[in-house]
Design brief:
alpha+beta, 4-stranded antiparallel sheet, 3-stranded mixed sheet, 17 helices, disordered N terminus
Amino acid sequence: MASCSSITSVDLQAQVPSCVNRGISSTSNRGHQCQMFLGKMRKFGLGNPTSGVSFLSSFQGTSLGNVCHRHRKHQRKSKVLRAKSSQKTSLKDDKNQPEFEQQRTESGRDIHSSIDRRQLLISSFTAAGLPLISNQSLAAPIQPPDLTQCQKAALPPGAKSVNCCLPEPTKVIDFQFDSSLPMRVRKAAHLVDAAYIKKYNQAYELLRNLPDNDPRKFSQQASVHCAFCDSAFLQPNTNDFLEIHNSWLFFPWHRWYLYFHERILAKMLNDDTFALPFWNWDNQSVASPLPNVLPAVFIENPSLLDKLRDPLHQPPTLVDLSYSGQDEGLDPTSQRAANNNLMYQQVVSGAKTPSLFFGQAYRAGDANAPGPGTVENAPHGTVHVWTGDSSQPNYEDMGALYSAASDPIFFAHHANVDRLWTVWKSLGGRRKDITDPDWLNAEFVFYDENASLVKVKVGDALSIDKLSYTYQNVGNPWIAVNSSPLSKSSSVAGTKPVSSNGVASPATAEATLLEEIEEFGEEVEGKFKKLEGSFRSKVKRPVKDLFRKLKSQITDEELEEVLVIQGVEVPSDKISKFDVFINLPDADDKTPLNIPEFAGSFVNVPHLGMGPGMNRKATLRIGIGDKLEQLGIKDLSDVIVTLVPKGKGKDVPIVIKGIKIEYD
């Protein structure tokens, strides 16, 4: 298995038979590359996949450029043969977008049609005898789209007619750090003073009054989020939609978005010290003014007010960080406890590795963004939906991604999400930025304060010091909310401990309960489960011998056990949510979340562009190492996982295709 899952500079001719004969590690990037390589050999008729000889000989003595040329030739040929090609529609002169066609395939936009270019290139380079000196040499980072090739955004049913396309640029310039900028301090929105509020309101007045074709105008700024979240752009040279949610791009793309929006506001005011505020909804303080309600600054000032907010969620109603589209009716004390537990789980306990926090890898040529990080699911997604108007078809404005940035509070919401990135890195351990070159070299484009289009890289967004801003220190008491372990459950000979109702403490149950609960198992073709209510499954933990082997590669403290919900599929245009519990088989939609058995949530904020048939497809990954320790069940060979659709999630089809545990 090791030879297949760790392909680097080893001769591929020797590797191919090993991949075929010994199997593929589905959780390994290199194993996935090996698997994809075999598929590409068959796809392009490049020889016997059990030997790879024909494929190797076809590239004998070629240069890197020729390898790339051969790949592009195959790619162009594949595009010609597609039954449905992409129909690109320029909207540069069309400000009246017609009603969205619900069936994506009817418009000829076939999301299945792309080639995974990265996997083919990796295989081609190795086959040609080119040494894999580093990942950088084979990198396939996401590239910015051509803004002149904008298409109709894929808006959800009932959405208001909008044109999300941006003004066409005359040129693109590379981003340069501006060392002359003063250090700006982003303050908590509930603590800003009257002088700041006056400036803030004035900046948005000026922004709203700019000419319609100015990319800095507020409506154009809102269109940026719509265009990049709802399939207005394809990845360059592919038929794959560019998506900046549901993957490791989420945090850096939104950091750049806020950075340039903030610089534009400062330009309007001619004040380089101006900084956006952040909505401190994670702060459960009872002191006045309350931090975790809609801040007054967004209610009392006309340029910062948005009419499409939920009237039931006005102050003093506390933000529900686990909101599912329906109010739970919790008293303030219980709501604060649930919010604190959610924050601890999503930022501290369940996000101990970069892939858990940021989300999964998304590279050039990937057909779908594969899965979000913990914070992107909740509280990010839940606060979006909580803020939007529940009387609107898609909880506009904040509750749907195409319209979310039309509400000025969007930028304060995302400023707090951005702040959590800095908080997370301060917690230590493996909580560090991703080092994969495909992440660091991913590029985006934004209009700056001078209305110039600027190209930026993820790698330049990692230090807020270099970007000349910081955050007011407001404390994060939720970091320690669950730091004390609960009393551990006893393990009786011949039984396996599981939680009972789990509200007060973990308990023990007879082994027969485990035997009564079936194991759903890992994803296999043709198998799926529709969540029509609470669903529970026994899940085997990896064999301890394998665990020990993994420990030899990473220190004990760094290895994280991860629960993986595979093949999650939900309608992209519907609010949906399900919660995950560990060893709580009786969990249902009334089970509170301020208990140790709660492990995490999956949340969908309405938008399209996430997959075929307007369905979002994703994998949910949750770190559970601390959770097993907390529940006193870290030595069990099996655990019970319960999935509970909540709120609006009970009314929409949610499908899963597998459940497993792996190590990260």
